[in-house]
Write a structure and sequence with these properties.
The radius of gyration is 23 Å and the shape is globular. Helices cover 79% and strands 0% of the residues. It is mainly α and 163 residues long. The protein folds into 2 domains: 75 residues, Tetratricopeptide repeat domain (Serine Threonine Protein Phosphatase 5, Tetratricopeptide repeat); 55 residues, no CATH class. The chain is built from 9 helices and no strands. The termini are far apart. The longest helix has 24 residues.
């Protein structure tokens, strides 16, 4: 018969080497190897294409391209933010609101996100809500000139600028 204190000591002794194996396995999974670099490059290319399409005022094309980027990486906050902005421009405010919630869940409540949420409210005609969001965005990112322009009373009276 094994003494009672020996069993816990044996379990502890065996768990130390197994813990090291688990860490080595996890390290191998998150290695930034060539496959990851290729994926990141493809994702950046999709986002760049979507942004260029957005700048050409092809908001439907931008929304489709951002959606393709999100299909490859659903945790890409930049793609979610672009998707939200394109959805705003298409008047798909419910989709935009869901996308802004995703960005915040992934990356936090950042100035650029809150600024675009303000722009969304501006497009809906909710000027007071937009002004409050622009002011919040300015406190979150005080050095951002686009946000500063939106937060200023002159800009809020004349128009807003999406970041």
């Amino acid at each position: 018969m094994v003494p009672r204190f020996l069993l816990p000591a044996l379990v502890l002794l065996l768990s130390v080497p197994l813990g090291a194996c688990s860490t080595a396995f996890e390290d191998a999974l998150i290695d930034d190897g060539p496959e990851y670099s290729q994926f990141a490059s493809q994702q950046a290319t999709l986002r760049d294409r979507a942004k260029a399409t957005f700048r050409q005022n092809d908001f439907a094309g931008a929304e489709r391209t951002f959606r393709a980027a999100l299909a490859k990486d659903p945790l890409d906050p930049e793609a979610w933010l672009g998707f939200a902005a394109a959805s705003d421009r298409l008047g798909r405010f419910e989709a935009a609101d869901k996308a802004y919630a995703q960005v915040i869940a992934i990356a936090g409540r950042r100035g650029e996100v809150v600024n675009n949420m303000g722009w969304s409210q501006w497009l809906r005609g909710n000027r007071e809500a937009a002004k409050l969001l622009f002011a919040e965005a300015l406190t979150l990112a005080p050095g951002n000139p686009v946000i500063a322009a939106n937060a200023s009373s002159q800009s809020a009276a004349g128009g807003a600028t999406e970041s």
